[in-house]
Amino acid sequence: MDYCTLNAKTYLSKYKIVSMIKEAVEKETPLSLVRIGDGENIVMAQEKVLSLEWISKNVAWRNDHNYCGIVLPNLEARDRCMQAVRNADLVGVFAGDKLTERIFKAFKITPKNIFYAFENVYLPMYKPFVRLIRDHPPLLVGRPAKSFAKYLFEKLKIRVPGTVLVDSYEDIDTCIKNMVNIPHKWSLISAGVNALIIANEMATKHGKVAIDFGHAPDNVMSPVYKDYWLANPDD
Length: 235
Known about the structure:
The protein is an alpha/beta fold. The protein is 46% helix and 11% strand. Strands 3-2-1-7-6-4-5 form a seven-stranded parallel β-sheet, sandwiched between helices. It is globular, with a radius of gyration of 17 Å.
């Protein structure tokens, strides 16, 4: 796959994504899934594609870690995110996104596999994925982790191995240390841009399956969304 021509025709199906995750979980082999959205694009573009001056004038959230978990500038985060995308087994993108394409060209990144960037938050709509959660309860990571763990127990009687909080980039290394200390096969990480870095390190250094889960827990638990099968387990 040419990094300059990310094409929706090469998107992996939800079936293939979940099959790859399931196989890795059951065989306990490392796998990482990450996705690239607006925040990831800006973090990775620092000084390679977009100047820090341009970012300071045009990125409103640059000083607010609440948006994506990272305050800019942060070139260390850029490099760690780049490595995470380079190593990832599955990379969520918006095909045709010019900034993503420019970033991939600048870093000479060719993703192993790509999928639609919002597919991760759609996974709870897919019953085989929900069955995987039931059969192999995941470690939950991020701000919504405790609430989501309670929700999973109330809806599906699932007891997850544990929950780990990560609020900002400065928490990453402590978060990873805490994850390693909790026995688990796989994790669902909702931590903004930091999820890329956490997923990569858990897969490459600790042999785990680690999934950038984005806003999926918030969406599942929101009364606004009725299409998530997790919200209607008896359907």
